[in-house]
Amino acid sequence: MYNAKILIDRLAADHTLAADEYLYILSNTDAQTLAYINNVAAEVCASVFHKSIYIRGLIEIGNVCRNDCLYCGIRHSNSHVERYRLNRDDILAACGEGYALGLRTFVLQGGEEGGKASDDFITGVVREVKELYPDAAVTLSLGEKDTDTYRRFREAGADRYLLRHETFNAAHYSSLHPASMSRDNRLRCLADLKRLGFQTGTGIMVGSPGQTAAHIVEDILFIGRLRPEMIGIGPFIPHRDTPFGTCRAGSLEQTLLLLSIFRLMFPHALIPSTTALATLSPGGREAGILAGANVVMPNLSPASVRRKYNLYNGKACTGSESVEGLKSLEESFRAIGYKIDFGRGDYAG
Ligand code: SAM
To answer: What is the pLDDT at residue 183?
Structure first.
């Protein structure tokens, strides 16, 4: 039989385990083992990033979405959502505000819009942001596009792209998404992004409805093969106006365990302590850092739209989850021995 601590030490040394060994850790981690892996992962992270946390300004550029993901509050069929799109001036103003505060990465995230007009709009905005702020990185998180559109985003200057695969298991993927979406197209998108030279992020929601430990092992193995530069791991949190509105949220403990597993697999990866984690639990953001995360993404969206980008119940978008709260964010980091790094924070593996 396995011993979890021995497996954790081996993961720290070799950066990989066998499928059964991951399954063992996922199924046999008690509070003591969790504290152990979190500490080992935080040490590995500190040896690479020196207790500095990269900061990204998150601009939620619109909540219009053609998809109907069963978990997501801004899904197409949620008629309670007040839809919005930021225009070019709004986005450039948000970047200007973030730049003045010292931010050097802007993450443009939004619902998935189809069509040439929307893709052209993004291409133009990326080009302008890069012209105005050539020393800043632009990350996009706008969902699935065809290969040519990704290429045009890249040629316009986008540096990074976040697209969680959500779950590698095709049947589980189908249970979370409408029939118009497929796991295979998701994987095609990620392969495109990698090939086009984006620093590519993927990841999962922890505790999404129907997720099993065996599914998570498939996710770990997939991420091990893809070798993404960024790994987004956050708990699923229900949104009342979705088909999963009464489902249980993912757990803090399992999220922290997975953050640590991925840190030990990829010492140089950019791994955020997510807003969902901060929403799930007071102190969640700090707990994520102490489990091996090294990125935070405070909200830089105009205050007037923040409440409209409501992915799940209670989503935090003020205080330390917002750029206005940078001081309190810095204080909360200082309290656990960390500091903010205002650099671009590119992947340097
Ligand atoms: N449309 C883009 C996409 O699909 O990648 C970007 C926006 S999407 C809302 C960003 C991420 O929010 C998703 O990848 C998903 O993991 C997360 N998300 C959506 N609903 C959530 C929920 N109920 N709980 C936790 N995370 C959620």
So the answer is: 98
Dihedrals phi, psi of 53, to nearest 5 degrees:
-115, 125
Q: What is the pLDDT of residues 217-233, one digit of tens each?
A: 999 999 999 999 999 99
**Residue 324, pLDDT above cutoff 90:** no
Q: Tokens 């010492």 map to which residue?
A: 267
The finding on whether 236 has its CB within 6 A of some atom of ligand 1 is yes
- CA 144 – CA 313 distance, rounded (Å): 25
Residue 311 CA to ligand 1 center (angstroms) comes to: 7
Rounded to whole angstroms, the Cα distance separating 167 from 170 reads 8
Q: Is the CB of 310 under 6 A from ligand 1?
A: no
- Report whether 236 contacts 209 (CB < 8 A): yes
Residue 256 to residue 253: CA distance in whole angstroms: 5
206 CB under 6 A from ligand 1? no
Element (H, E) at 152: helix 147-156
Q: Which among 66, 72, 165, 230 is the best mutation to test ligand 1's pocket, defined by most ligand atoms within 8 Å of the CB?
A: 72
CA distance 277 to 270: 16
What is the token pair recorded at 185? 């197209």
* Residue 239 beta carbon below 6 angstroms from any ligand 1 atom: yes
Instruction: For a ligand 1 pocket test, name from 311, 312, 313, 317 the mutation site with the most ligand atoms within 8 angstroms of its C-beta.
Output: 311
- What is the distance between the alpha carbons of residues 215 and 175, in angstroms, rounded to a whole number? 13
The structure tokens 């340097």 sit at 348
pLDDT band per the 50, 70, 90 thresholds, residue 199: very high
Neighbours of 133 (CB within 10 A): 18
Residue 329: count other Cβ atoms within 10 Å of its Cβ.
21
